Amino acid sequence: MSSLSRPSTGQDLVNPPVRAYVAAYGLWFLTFLVGLVVAFAVRDVFQMAMVFTPLDRYGVHLFNQISVVVLVVLLLALVVVTEAYYRNGVPRRQVGVRFARVIGILALILAVAQGVRLALEVVAGSVNLLSVLILAVSLGIYGGAREVVKRQAQPADASSARREVMSGALVGALLAAGAVLIALAIKTPLNPYDEGLALVGGMRVLHGDVPLRDYWAIYPPGQSYVLAALFGVAGENVLVERVYDTLVRVLLALVIYLVSARVLRSWRWALAPYLAAAVLLASATFYGYAVFPALLCGFAALLLGFIYVDRDKLRWLVGAGLLAGVTVFFRLDLGFYTAASIGVLLILTWLLPPEGDVAWGDRTRRLMLAVLAAAGPALLLVLVFYGYLGSVAGFSTMVENLLVFPATTFRAVRHLPYPPLIPDWSIWSGEGSIDVRLDRMLSDYLRFYIPLLVYVLSSALLVVSAVRAGRGGRRFARTDSMAAALVVFGAGMFVQALSRYDEIHVLPASLVVVILITWMVRQIPAGRWSQPWVTVPVAAVLLVPFTLYFVSPYIGLSNIVRHFTPLGCYSTLPRAGCVPTLPGQDDAVQILDHQSPERGPLFAGLPRHDNVFANDVSIYFLAGRPIATRYHELHPGVTTTQVVQEEMVAELTAQAPGWLVFITWGNPSEPNASRFNSGVTLLDDYIRDLYKREHTVGMYELWRRQP
């Protein structure tokens, strides 16, 4: 063929197919929708700017009406111009680049508008994180569209090194942005029960108490020992615990990014699960939650296991074993699931090696060495830690509290029902806006069933790959073994949430789900993405997890930061570290300091103890006083029993605390055994015989011991 007969760049096609025009008009309609969104955003910013002008209400109204007319005219111009622009681009095969050029311009307009809005919000002293997100997304779309146009114009551009530098800078900026998001919620109001347990556990260990022996607990004491060490160095302050917790979450998100990069074989693709994990962790307000350091160690152990699979060096497995052992210091169940996922990783590399054929004997010897390298350090740490704890607290007590109680009584009094297979549509008849009712109906449902669906689909893909590998087809890739380990790890995280299914307990499973969803998307061949019947359904399906695991928690985080900025100070108590407390909590502690300056022992209870759900544990820490009983946590099924109340009465008789503090919230009457009255009133009778209510402040009552 001569050079004259070849189509040159921009040369018309003789007969463009009909589907090309259909695609062009589809993009044209999409452009109109994007233009409509941009118009609403610009008008919103214009109305916000009018607030800062000296114009009277008549002038503002006039300018608003003019702005509507201008925006409508511009939208009509956009519709007319882009229709001709895209239609004429079909014969030249330039619809895609023309669409990118138009969307880039609209994104730039939106970015400018959001920049102005952010500036106005800064002036008003009320920055909204949603504005930041919209600005970042619009700038990202503009950058992507600009890159598409440049590549179309210069397909053989030699500035690849510059693009790599810019790509690296973008990755670094997004990693930093995720860390900042996690830190923004540090002034969330104090959680009086769950966070109080962490604070008081650290305080009691710091002052010489031994977990399980000197105070009742049902979780491993690793978090208590860490917080005790931090309190000993930096002082007993809520903010010390929160800075530690925030650093743990930031490290956890970064480790998730590194794990994702190994599984996905892409630093860029790994940003998707990283950002979702960062937002999920930022919006989870359970500070001091021992699951977070356990997850950090668990994911880090998996990461070292993945590095071992890639590099075949046993030292990485030794590190993985050490981290798996440390995981057990914080949570027994998470330590077990971590060990199981590493075991699956090693077994799969033994059964389906990614490299060429290797003799069974050599593979088996390698497997035995790998198991010893990982299991040896883990077992050694577990035996030393729990051997010491059992020797000082009693092995029978340790087994009862850490194993038997969580599997029996805890499940009976804390279990929550799972969402039904068919969503409860009756909620539509309730009160509230459509979005609130929809969120209430679907959030828990989707959090429960999306992980199950993702684990099933991931397992199916892995089984297909394993069957092909077993029949001599393509090799079972290293990333397939890694994904299988993540499926086991995530399934374990889901199982641990079943004892009390709610948003915070299913969070660990969600962190694994966002990695596996990205991994499944990566399984779609690159050539398929150019086919609309693949791209459109996949994009539509991904909207659900994107909304659930990013948009919804991001909105929640935005609301938190709007009300409790990280630089604000919301409490006058020195030990609170400016963290917001409950209504009346500051006053209750200040009354205690004034009425009882000798700082005698304290008991924090409830108006009644025959039917309990949770007490305010945090007030022990805020008051900084000795605790009059080993049961600082009033747990249903424990402190509602005759035996324990007899023990508590004996302790209160011996300690003779001058003051009792009761929080007056009621039992939420959950659908489990915690809503039932035990009929045991021994503790309540003792209190009413010897104490009298003196003060009521906010949610609290203060009772004084009578002479």
Measured as a percent range, the helix fraction is 55-70%
Helix and strand run:
HHHHHHHHHHHHHHHHHHHHEHHEHEE
Q: Strand arrangement, largest sheet?
A: 1-2-4-3
Assign the structural class, choosing from mainly alpha, mainly beta, alpha/beta, alpha+beta, or little secondary structure: mainly alpha
- Mean model confidence by pLDDT: 88
Radius of gyration: 30 Å
Provide the number of structural domains: 3
| Dominant shape | globular
N-to-C CA distance: 111 Å
Task: Kindly describe this structure.
- It contains 23 helices and four strands.
- The chain has three domains: 141 residues; 366 residues, no CATH class; 132 residues, no CATH class.
- 67% of the residues lie in helices and 3% in strands.
- Strands 1-2-4-3 form a four-stranded mixed beta sheet.
- It has 707 residues and is mainly alpha-helical.
- 38% of the residues are buried.
- The N terminus is likely disordered.
